[in-house]
Amino acid sequence: MAKDAIVSSEMAKKFATEKDTPYQRWVREQGLDIISAHFVPNLRTVDLKPWAQRGGKAVFINHEASRTSNDCYVCEIAPGGKLTPQRQLYDEMVLVLDGRGSTTVWNDAGQRITFEWKAGAIFAIPLNCWHQHFNGSGQQPARYVGVSYLPSVLNLYDDVDFVFGTKYDFKNRFNGEPDYFSSKAEVEGFLSRTNFVPDAVALPLITAKERGAGGGHIRFNMARGAMASHISQFPVGTYKKAHHHGPGAHVIVLSGEGYSLMWPDGEEPKRYEWQPGTLIVPPNAWFHQHFNAGATPARYLAFKNWSPRNSQGVPMSWISRRLGGYQIDYADESKLVRDMFSEALSRHGLEPRMQDAYAKELETLPPLK
Ligand SMILES: [Fe+2]
User: Fold this and answer.
1) Residue 140 has what DSSP assignment?
2) 240 C-alpha to center of ligand 1: Å?
3) Distance 290 CA to ligand 1 centre (A)
4) What pLDDT, in 10s, does the model give residues 194-221?
5) How far is 8 from 14, CA to CA, in rounded Å?
């Protein structure tokens, strides 16, 4: 099911009581606005409202598909301010959008660590640890975006006190290790085991040809949690292959300029222009494809927690449609895709640099069935 599949309002009414969820009720109780969109032009400038429960200002971002799997919010801490301490029975990934500050993490056993961050940092909150964020500047606000799988947990237990108030230390996740939030990383394949990336914009990546056009890639498992994240970069004059997957992947542009196409299978692609700070959350099973249309390399970060894989453990979204996967090979994309890209680059006096990627793909392209 990739299309919207809209039915009559009479039929929809019969399912209306099942549409509302404990997560949605909790969101409404927070008294914040909800940006219900799969494209947000700039997280740095979205309007925020005071969030009594956390002590900062914030806005929720979720849409029809993503709100069943992932919570996303943007939060700002006032100059010299701090948020209320919180613990939570779910993993949360954080990207700092603006400013600088620090976070203190502690458990019931009394183990406590404080680490500092600034714009561009990524970290995870260890499961059920108490944590508190502080703005390190007396002049500038500090703003971050947090993504988690809160809807799955809240919808499962339907008990806010349980999710935010259970006294239990997951010692295998956090045990007071003094270097827990240092920038050390163990890299294996594409996967980096780390709990803190000080600067996601400058982090060196690993070469990945599987997603197209000589891009760099790195995947993270932070705080030994169940949230996945990765960074992808693609050079000037290149674009990624189109693919689809389940709901809830939150793609945040870190650098560069370009656009993405998104479309449900069988429909015309729609174009979304991006810049650093743009958020794209592809709806369930919609194809999406990212294009670097600018004069510098482009880089994005994705937070997500669910990824269908084949029996070998390879994400379906990395596998050719010709093999039954969810990725469209360059050889199978429509002419419109290439024409639009050439036109976009020509505004910078640039031309596509895709010939090598097209040729390389042909070396291993599975035959059409
Ligand atoms: Fe994707």
Assistant:
1) S
2) 10
3) 9
4) 999 999 999 888 876 655 566 788 999 9
5) 10
293 contacts: CB under 8 Å, gap ≥ 6: 257, 258, 259, 341, 344, 345, 347, 348
What pLDDT is stored for residue 1 in this prediction?
A: 42
List helix spans (H) across the chain: 9-13, 16-19, 22-29, 150-157, 160-165, 335-346, 355-364
Give dist(CA 181, CA 198) in Å, integer. 10
CA 105 to CA 306: how far, in whole Å? Answer: 26
* pTM score of the predicted model: 0.92
Fold topology of 186-364: Jelly Rolls (2.60.120)
Which of the 8 DSSP states describes residue 44?
T
Ligand 1 centre distance from Cα of residue 224 (Å): 22
The CA 272 to ligand 1 mean position distance, Å, reads: 15
State in Å: Cα 218 to ligand 1 middle. Answer: 14
Distance 250 CA to ligand 1 centre (A): 9
Q: Which residue type sits at 184?
A: K
Centre of ligand 1 from the C-alpha of residue 35, in Å: 21
Ranges for all domains in the chain classified under CATH 2.60.120.10: 9-165, 186-364
- Name the class of domain 9-165: mainly beta
Question: Which run of H or E residues covers position 274?
Answer: strand 270-274
